[in-house]
Amino acid sequence: MAIASGLLALVLGGGLGASGNALRMTAASAQHDIAVQLAGEAADGLAGSGFDASTWGSRVSTALPSGNGQVTTLGTQLRIDVAWSGALSGGSECPGAHCLRVWVSP
Questions:
Q1: d(Cα 10, Cα 54) in Å, to the nearest integer?
Q2: What is the distance between the alpha carbons of residues 87 and 34, in angstroms, rounded to a whole number?
Q3: Residue 10 in 3-state DSSP?
């Protein structure tokens, strides 16, 4: 209980700086939720026959700051990458400042 009270005092005592951090954390969480939704849309679309990578990529770039989406076929699996606030680049486990990578087996 004392630890929780101390943390609360630290957050409340932080003033505007703490509020700014909380807002940034909330925005990052919302962006992650959007990335998860977009990756799910791609996975669902890829499972059907009507997936349009260009339209989906446009949605990613519109929905997320500096958003970039990519679907790559690797052997028998599909890899869905959604990155924002940074560009996708090959060879990295997490391209961009923030990213989400999902593997799909058709």
A1: 47
A2: 17
A3: helix
Instruction: Convert the pLDDT of each residue in 35-71 to its tens digit.
Output: 999 999 998 888 877 789 899 999 999 999 888 999 9
Q: Cα(51)–Cα(70) distance, rounded to whole angstroms?
A: 13
Q: Cα torsion at 58, 25, 33, 60 (round to 10°)?
A: 10
Rounded (10°) angle between helices 53-63 and 16-47: 170
At 80, the amino acid letter reads I
One-letter amino acid for residue 67 of the chain: G
DSSP for 37-69, written as a single string: HHHHHHHHHHHSS---HHHHHHHHHHHSTT-EE
Q: How far apart are CA 80 and CA 7, in angstroms?
A: 38
| pTM recorded for the entire structure | 0.66
Closest to 106 measured CA to CA, from 32, 53, 45: 45
State how far the Cα of 70 lies from the Cα of 79, in Å rounded to an integer: 8
